[in-house]
Amino acid sequence: MKMDFVEFAQGHGLIVNQIVTNRWVATPTQDHPRSSNGRYKFLGDVGWVQNWALMEKPATWFAEGKNAQSLEVRQSILGSTQDRDEKAKKAKAKAEWILQQTSLESHPYLDKKGFADQQGNVWQREGQRILVIPMRHGRELTGCQLIDEQGSKKFLHGQVSKGATFTIGAKGTAIFVEGFATGLSVRTIMQHMNIPCHIHICFSASNVEFVSRNHRNGVIVADNDPNGVGKAAAEKASKPYWISETVGEDFNDYHKRVGDFRASQSLKKTLLSLKTLPQSA
To answer: What pTM value is reported for the model?
Structure first.
């Protein structure tokens, strides 16, 4: 018997308590129950689910007796595509508007991550100071990540996140990471070693894999997730990668725990795996 949509979503790790139709809905996942790391869209005859940590693209569900060639499904998909494009335009416009409201300030999240003196784009919203990380495809702004004072992270509804990055640095060794704080720690360590680099913050393990495929060289600095997602994505990307020996730790956690010197020695071992070794500036 064909599983219903809720069972399908749960099978991909989403936590779904009720179904909302005709729009993308963010949900927690079994591996990240306190985040909105999953999403689904249900149109009745067809639906899609995605766990950002595990899946590069959404998985498609069809109702009993339906398939991609069914007239009802084709009509639903056409409407969904048009709706998606419209929402992406609105998300881009909202990201541009939000960034216009920001000012360069310190932020509690950055302080917690060991960067009390680091300034970022901070948006004052309903009594909260929100750290705004722009997300771009090349030079085109497509959305942003919003981080509140407690460290909770969200993306704009409808934005195009696949392939989007925030880049630190313009030349040198390409380094691919998931999170902003990890990117700041990598920058600190590369400066400590006097090695130029450009760091691609990709916001999820699946996006690290996707983005890094478009670069012939470079290394991945992966999160050691309890479910192994970060390591699996790094291995699938077929590039040298660094990962902490401690489960649940990313490079920022490791950097805070061991300090600049030990972190630089550890990352340097991964850099030496490159066919063309990075040179000090």
So the answer is: 0.78
